[in-house]
Amino acid sequence: MKELVWHRQLLPAVDRFADRPFVTDTGAGTTTSYAEHGSRVLRLTNALNKELGLAREDRFAVLSLNSGRFEELYHAGLMGGGVVNPLNLRFAPRELTHVLADSATKVVFVDALFAPVIDAVREAAGVRTVVLMGDGTGSGTAPHDVSYEDLIAAGEEVVPAEPEEEDAVMLMYTGGTTGLPKGVLLTQRSMMLTLYHLQMTFRLDAEEVFLAQVPMFHAASMGAILGSPVSGGQLVTVPFFDPGTVLKVLKSHRPSNTIMVPTMISMLMAHEDYAPDALSSLQRFTYGASPMPAPVLERLRQDAPHIGLFQGYGMTESAALVCVLNPEDHERGGELLKSAGRPVPGTILSIQDETGTEVPLGEVGEVCVRGGQYMQEYWRRPEETAEAFRDGWYHSGDAGYLDKDGYLYLVDRTKDMIVTGGENVYSTEVEQAVATHPAVAQVAVIGVPDDTWGEAVRAIVVLVPGQTATEQELIEHCHGLIAGYKIPKGVTFREEPLPLSGAMKVLKRELRAPYWEGRDRAVN
Fold first, then answer.
1. CATH second-level architecture of 7-345?
2. Is the pLDDT of residue 524 over 50?
3. Which pTM value belongs to this model?
4. What are the φ/ψ torsions at residue 405 (nearest 5 degrees)?
């Protein structure tokens, strides 16, 4: 079957919108039309095969800030140039070496900024060719074998043969909370079903100006990678999220749509140049990838009541979307704002206990999902693949419950659950309570060892600059908001921001590490 392949999405869009601007790369200061983008992608696809010797099933990696070139590489992979392996910008050298070696990646595309990082691991990882994507070619200071533009110039503008729906196109390595990252192998079918979910949910059109500010290596970027070109809209990229830069781009380019992780929203609103009118051009706004603190959502709704708000819930294994909370749901407000929404079309949810038995409505269990957009496998990990898809359901590792109307309510990652005195405490619920204190800028809740209770609830807090609060004050603040056994037994204050992954999620494993040092396991 070849109905669900990228050829049948990109090429008609290039023909239909040929003269329209497609990618505005604010880092490079360039704008590329649909026709130019299509030409460059075809030449790049050809060069990957003919110049670099990659077959359709071979992997090539990208270590880059957001850019128009990154978009081209995604599309070249989808056109048959190879399987794209987008690398997390915050991978440590050990992780980077593992990912490149585990995936048998022979070609790496890299920014000048990260070229020395790849050069340091290329021998151990078995990398054959390094392609320099951006500036730095002339100076010779960035180690590489060939330049990106020279590679495109060597390619021919020919349309490759259409792939099959089950052909692999992306190998995205999950950041992982324990151990080394594992690869999620996604197919043409996965990506095209995700595209349909995006179009059916967000109704993207040719007037859309989408601001790409989440890292393009992350599954949350699929709206920019897949949705914008098919709709005829314009994509505006910023190299990386910086609140001051984003505020300037919001003013100069007037985007109508964007996606942000809650941490990014908080940082934007905390910037000295922020004012509510910065959001005036936005018509659609999606948040997700981590829990949204209630005070942040409330302020967003107050500052920009005109925006249609979406919450997206998904994972790398689902090629992005599983559930969406739409603008109508946000307008209803109340308890519904705590929901992750309802499943996108063709996706079925089941809440199950540890035996795989479905639990009653309203009861917490593991979120299990069925859908055609799911990954083909964990790369070269058949046992873990079988475990994840046992009994025909993908087992997400998220804890949640369904209400009578089919809305999903997430309570935590199962691995972030704290067991204290035999009671289960979901860290996100405690974080929501602590975050309502006006002096709290950031909070993460973890379990720490306790001789009496097994684990004790501890809040790690960053205060709003210029404001003060004591440990006892924050503990007292939680009384009446959550049950007594959930209230933090202690509070640790940090002056530096909470540690974040490349996808802007709080790295709780780093916060836990000092408390569990010297123990043979991170539960008690």
1. 3-Layer(aba) Sandwich (3.40)
2. no
3. 0.83
4. -95, 5
